[in-house]
Amino acid sequence: MSKATLKADGHERGLLPLAASAVLSDLAEYLLYVALPVWVLKQSGSVGAVGLAFILRMLPAFGGPFLGFIVDRYPRRLLLVASSAARTLLVLPLLATIGRGLLGPMYVAILGCALFYLLFGITRRAAVPDLVSGKERLAWANSTLGLAGSLAQVAGASLAALVLPHLAPVYVVGGAAAGYLLSAGSAVLVPLEAGPRRQVGRAVGGPSAGEGTRAFRSLAAALAHPVVLGVVLLIFLEMLAAGPFIAYQIVYLEQDMGLRPEFFGYLFSSQMLGNVVMAAILTRAARRVTPARLLPAAMAGLALSSLVFLSRVPSLVLLSRVLVGFCVTAKVIADDTLIQTFGDRRLLGRTFSLAGMSGAISEVASIALAGRLIPGLGLRPIYLVCAVLQAAGAAGALLIVARAGGTGAAARPATV
């Protein structure tokens, strides 16, 4: 089937198997995202062991450039299939070891699944431009995939909450393994090239350059366009402000608002609701709402949500998390669309991996810094600083939009 046939009349049918694969991947991933830390806690009785589980989930993000090289070097359909199949193999040993008090196999599954989930996500984002009929359809494609992913994540986390008290762990593990396997099967149908991808290291670094020099130059080339560089820096700033909210909002609920920690569950659900609703809105309105409009509005909305969160009124706090869901989804879609539009398609794997790594670094740094400052300052001053950073991000987003020509997806992409 030719690419012209797949994209006839603007109907990107190639996105359907990609969306199906991503939905099954997210469903299985979020089922285990909730289940594995619960099992670690039950088998160890240690909060530190649970903390280690979450640290292991974050580690792969720091190897982002390496994953980016893989995505840009090998066929993307192969990587989609392999990253889902690998997670099937990683969780299958749990069928024999779960319930025996062995934490090692669970830690291996947590780290390995996080690594291949990240590889799957980078590959999916890098593949989208090859599956749409034109750059004007990128925002719609990203919105559609975002909506499907948000629904799958909510379903996976909710399913875990429902079945964990009633089903033996082997059934949960078996269900997740089946989801990964079906994800791999769906990825086989994605109409992407099957042969090896063009080698971009030599093209960027030159034939006389050493391997290390070529690798460094290709990373620099991935961020060469000022719009792409601006988006990556904005992600760094966004996660710098988000880290203290992600890590310590449960402490704020208990110590500053006098609420039970279980209220955190309502916050999570409210944010996921915002994610789903915004993705649905943008799927319908992608042609009218450009990334150039979304990006500054999303950062301004995040700053507003932080101020509303500080109101200490439970209903307003919940509303602030719905707003966060709106803004985070809008920003992710705008980020992806701008990178896909202005970035070099040969280097999209590296670009997305660098963006993810920059966010991970700033998030960890802000969580560590806030943890040292909380005993002396409390959380409210820290959250106010975060709101100021988000407002500064809104100003930075306006500069990015100006550089993009004010039209986002309508501007000419970088060299392919």
Offer a quick outline of the entry.
The protein folds into 2 domains: about 15-195, Growth Hormone, Chain: A, CATH 1.20.1250.20; about 220-410, MFS general substrate transporter like domains (Growth Hormone, Chain: A, Up-down Bundle).
How does this structure look, described?
With 416 residues, this protein is mainly α. It has two domains: 13-197, Growth Hormone, Chain: A (Up-down Bundle); 218-410, Growth Hormone, Chain: A (Up-down Bundle), CATH 1.20.1250.20. Helices cover 77% and strands 0% of the residues. The protein has 17 helices and no strands. It has helices at 3-6, 15-44, 47-58, 64-73, 76-91, 94-97, 104-127, 138-163, 169-188, 201-205, 211-222, 226-255, 263-285, 291-309, 314-342, 348-377, 379-403. Helix 12 (226-255) runs parallel beside helix 16 (348-377). The longest helix is centred in the N-terminal third of the chain and has 30 residues, at 15-44. The chain is globular, with a radius of gyration of 21 Å. Mean pLDDT is 81; it is low at 1-11, 199-209 and 406-416.
Write out key terms for the chains shown:
416 residues, mainly alpha, Growth Hormone, Chain: A, 17 helices, 77% helix, disordered N terminus, disordered C terminus
How many helical stretches?
Answer: 17
Class from secondary-structure proportions: mainly alpha
Distance linking N and C termini:
23 Å
Assign the CATH topology of the largest domain: Growth Hormone, Chain: A
Low-confidence segments, given as residue ranges, are 1-11, 199-209, 406-416
User: What is the arithmetic mean of pLDDT?
Assistant: 81
Number of domains: 2
Biggest sheet features: none
Q: How would you describe the shape?
A: globular
CATH superfamily of the largest domain: MFS general substrate transporter like domains
**Strand content bin:** under 5%
